[in-house]
Amino acid sequence: MLEIIKNHIFHLDEILLMLHYNFTKQSHEKWWLTDIRFDADVRDDITFCYDVLKDVSRSFAEVICQLPNNISLDFVILYLRARALDTIEDETPILNDDLKKKKKILKHFHKETNDILYEINDVKHRRLIHNYSRVMKVSSVLSNKSRTLTNKIIKKMAKGMIKYLDSKIETVEQYNDYCYYVAGLVGEILTQFSVVNGFEDANFIKQTIKNKNVFSNHRKGGLDKSMGIFLQKTNIIRDYKEDIDLNKQWWPKDIWGKYSDDFSRLPESPNANHCINELINDNLENIPDILEYLKLVQNVDYFKFCATPQIIAIHTQALCYNNVKLYQQKLKIRKGLAIKAMKANSYKHVCHQIRNALNIIKSKIDNKTEIGLVTEKNIMIIETIISKEIGPEKTIFEKINQYLFLLIVLVVVNFLFYKFSTYFDPNKTDINPPNITNTNPLENPINNTEILSGNNEDFDIKELAKTAGKLFGLNNEDIEKAMASRTNGIMESNNNNTMSSMFNINSAELPSTMGMPMIFTLFGTKI
């Protein structure tokens, strides 16, 4: 908790958003438990699949669980099978001395239906592969189209893994090729799933998968490939420390070789940060394709599923840019940013989020270097696309005015709340009307009934109470009852000259939570 507060101390909007998210999030409904298509054993296996998904990928679990039931289950099985394949590739040290056997396992993995009982260090991934038969039992109840598409992609992914299993990534071309096999193909199958399940029409495949007019330099096909490749490159860049510990090298030597002769000693280079920046420059070229893909998506559920990982990835790139801490630890974005990403449900919202991330990168650019100039050029291209949708970037003065306006609104809201509360508070004395010049109460006593009747033009507290009451959620009937009760209380107080009979608001109690929703609403428009 202290770490979260420390990370978000200058991000009040994210703190409010996290509070709102934690208090309003709903647990994922276990719809399969009442689905007559599944028997008791299959229902237990589906429960296991959703549970283990949360273990091996919390962020993907969030977005997958938001999808409609059937396609959600398709995506769960696809993700778990791909994750199990990746685990065999990366985390089975017992097979590292027998690459021939490892290649054979990968080659036939798309046919595997049994538990995979190799020992690995990661407990969560071990649980997945040791119970792989349960994943495949659920796979067997999916539609023929779903199983066929998944098997096809798993087979292709394994082919790419085998290709680079016993060789290092030397060139940027090989780097793109590897990322295509292990992630670009996933973008393709997800696009096909969206059409098969009726999320998007058949024309969507032509606009994305078959669209060869892509901006990125990966040369692997359509917009869908850029979606997957961007995510994979983000993970590869961020996971330097983790891969070094596993004796892996996925960064292309064409780039890191400029800064060191030994990949494991790259952090010792005086320009190690430039290597990170050059890799990120290469990855930024995928963003125009990502924006084009997301603009074509029509279904809101599928849009959120696609957009969330991309926003998290671009914020991760912003965190990694020019940041040599990457060489010592796995960098993760703030939880508040991740929740913001999960709230993105429109193309304009995505544009705002990407612009925010690009602004962070811009603040880190060293434009005295060639790499910095390339970064500026890439950002300018992306900003041009974004500006067509949401307008140009606001100037610093416009931003100040915007937040100043919010501050003024908050001050006014608090003032009205105070006035409305004190108006009905029997312990508060009434405010003297401005036209009373004599300060001696014995010579010129205040006529409370005159003030309440609204005769004072300069200070109409009755109208103020009505306005404040409406603002804070009370209806006209409650306001009138409260004011009538207060008027009677004050008159009785004047007659009896006692405080004991002053107004006590019972007939129009104020909503106890009326302040907080308004605060969340004000900030929610900007979150």
UniProtKB/TrEMBL annotation:
GO biological process, alphabetically ordered: farnesyl diphosphate metabolic process
UniProt keywords, alphabetically: Membrane, Transmembrane, Transmembrane helix
GO annotations of cellular component type: endoplasmic reticulum membrane
Gene3D superfamilies reported in the protein's UniProt record: Farnesyl Diphosphate Synthase
Record-linked SUPFAM superfamilies: Terpenoid synthases
Keyword Transmembrane helix: yes
Alphabetized Pfam families for the sequence: SQS_PSY (PF00494)
A GO term for molecular function: squalene synthase [NAD(P)H] activity
Transmembrane segments: 400-418
Keyword ATP-binding: no
Protein name: Squalene synthase
Origin species: viral metagenome
Source organism phylogeny: unclassified sequences, metagenomes, organismal metagenomes
